[in-house]
Specification:
Largest sheet: 2 strands, antiparallel
CATH topology of the largest domain: Fumarase C, Chain A, domain 2
Radius of gyration: 31 Å
Mean pLDDT: 96
Number of domains: 3
Number of helices: 20
CATH class of the largest domain: Mainly Alpha
Order of helices and strands: HHHHHHHEEHEHEHHEHHEHHHHHHH
Bound molecules: arginine
CATH superfamily of the largest domain: Fumarase/aspartase (Central domain)
CATH architecture of the largest domain: Up-down Bundle
Helix content: 55-70%
């Protein structure tokens, strides 16, 4: 830091006689990371200035000078010419000081009827609102790619699992649509959260409001807020909207992590259900045969980090008395890191989906092993009048015999099956085939290919209706 930086006059320096300790200055500053909010800060300031002019606190010449100055600052920032100064603490004071330097004393009037407390709360809300929309766009892109793949895999049969043990046959299309549904709820959560994010704190000033004749609704309209915060103390202090947003992001990552875990398993030699394209995998420096699913692994890993940010924000908030406390400055880095990593994860996951090669033969093979149609046999016995609990017992015995013989139920002959129950007839083999099993689950939400087809249609409708 240069000598010149140390002599910067603090906007709050009036009541102080000693300069800030240099280390404290760096310790308390946030400009190194909150400069990222510059565009939102400037948009908020322009709207505030316009309102001040509207109610007669600023003249129209003063307003115009402020807007021109702020726009020039934005231009400089975007061209990389703006010099950020740690001695000016944060993005707000850096921009305001530069404005005053450019347009003179009029720059100092911008902060009339405002505090950094309502200013920063406004900036973060504008930022989160924008990022919600960006994340939603990424979500929709991923969902579209999933639906496209599901359509191609409409009747690809694979084992469905519970406890990671073969349970019942399903189609791969059906499985992919399960992922789609998870992400659909994530999108809904973001939309829901957005309605609470989009409330304007400006006007709360430091904590109690302001004595100037401000028009909050006017500013809210200029900035596209749905409403103004109804309590000034609450408006400057709570970051629940950011916590809620990060919680929604945590769930997005949790879902991506679960999908990733499945892809990783399926890509192992033991499953060999899918292969992710070379451009999304890496090799090993020592084992030449390796093709590692790094992208899904990294997404699974990043989920822990986002969950950590959620806990950080919750913990940041829990002990704070009303109203604003400097603790809140710590909300930014977890928030920014969450946004960056969720967007990157969604993007790379979406890009990876079309590179997936599906080994339908192996999926089918696996479904044929593991007695995946055992429930179908029990259901068959029930249609012949046997109570389900008895049918369960009969099929259990048939499975035990199948294990001894090394045969799946469908491979057992009619006389072999009839040893377990006389009600079994020659029509039994229809229900023991994978196709028969799948086709029979023919209701909304079931795995029958015609139901999956309907589900794809509704998914496409939902995607286009947004
Ligand atoms: N940098 C601060 C933050 O991020 C801005 C608000 C500072 N307000 C104050 N009274 N010190 O929260």
């Amino acid at each position: 830091m240069s000598k010149k930086d140390k002599t910067v006059v603090k906007p709050w320096g009036g009541r102080f006689t000693e300069p800030t300790n240099t280390f404290v200055e760096a310790f308390t500053a946030s400009v190194t990371f909150d400069k990222r909010l510059y565009a939102h800060d400037i948009a908020g300031s322009i709207a505030h200035a316009r309102m001040l002019a509207h109610v007669g606190v600023l003249t129209s010449e003063e307003y115009e000078a402020i807007v021109e100055g702020l726009q020039a600052i934005q231009d400089d920032i975007e061209k990389g010419h703006f010099v950020w100064d740690i001695a000016l603490e944060d993005v707000h004071m850096n921009i305001e000081a530069s404005l005053t330097q450019r347009i003179g004393d009029t720059g100092k009037k911008l902060h009339t009827g405002r505090s950094r407390n309502d200013q920063v709360a406004t900036d973060i809300r504008l930022y989160v609102r924008e990022e919600i929309d960006a994340i939603n766009t990424q979500l929709l892109r991923l969902q579209t790619n999933l639906v496209d793949l599901a359509e191609q895999q409409l009747d690809t049969i694979m084992p469905g699992f519970t406890h990671l043990q073969t349970a019942q046959p399903v189609t791969f299309g059906h499985h992919l649509l399960a992922w789609f549904e998870m992400l659909k709820r994530d999108s809904g959560r973001l939309a829901d959260c957005r309605s609470r994010v989009n409330i304007m704190p400006l006007g709360a000033a430091a904590l109690a409001g302001t004595s100037y004749p401000i028009n909050r609704n006017y500013v809210a309209e200029l900035l596209g807020f749905n409403d103004v915060a109804k309590n000034s103390l609450d408006a400057v202090s709570d970051r629940d909207f950011a916590i809620e947003f990060v919680a929604a992001c945590s769930l997005i990552m949790t879902h991506l992590s679960r999908c990733s875990e499945e892809l990783i398993l399926w890509m192992s030699a033991q499953f060999d259900f899918v292969e992710i394209g070379d451009s999304f995998c890496t090799g090993s420096s020592i084992m030449p045969q390796k093709k590692n699913p790094d992208v899904p692994e990294l997404i699974r890993g990043k989920t822990g980090r986002i969950n950590g940010h959620l806990v950080a924000l919750l913990t940041l908030m829990k002990g704070q008395p009303l109203a604003y406390n400097k603790d809140n400055q710590e909300d930014k880095e977890p928030l920014f890191d969450t946004v960056d990593n969720v967007k990157a994860s969604l993007r790379v996951f979406a890009d990876m989906i079309p590179t997936i090669k599906v080994n339908a033969g192996n999926m089918r093979e696996a479904a044929l092993r593991g007695f995946s149609t055992a429930t179908d046999l029990a259901d068959y016995l029930v249609t012949k009048g046997m109570p389900f609990r008895d049918a369960h017992e009969v099929v259990g015995k048939a499975v035990r015999q199948g294990i001894i013989l090394g045969k799946d139920l469908a491979e057992m002959s009619l006389p072999e099956l009839q040893q377990f129950s006389g009600v079994i007839q020659s029509d039994v083999h229809e229900v023991l085939t994978l196709e028969g099993s799948i086709a029979s689950r023919d209701h909304i939400g079931g795995t029958a290919p015609n139901q999956v087809k309907n589900a794809i249609e509704s998914a496409r409708e939902w995607l286009s209706g947004l």
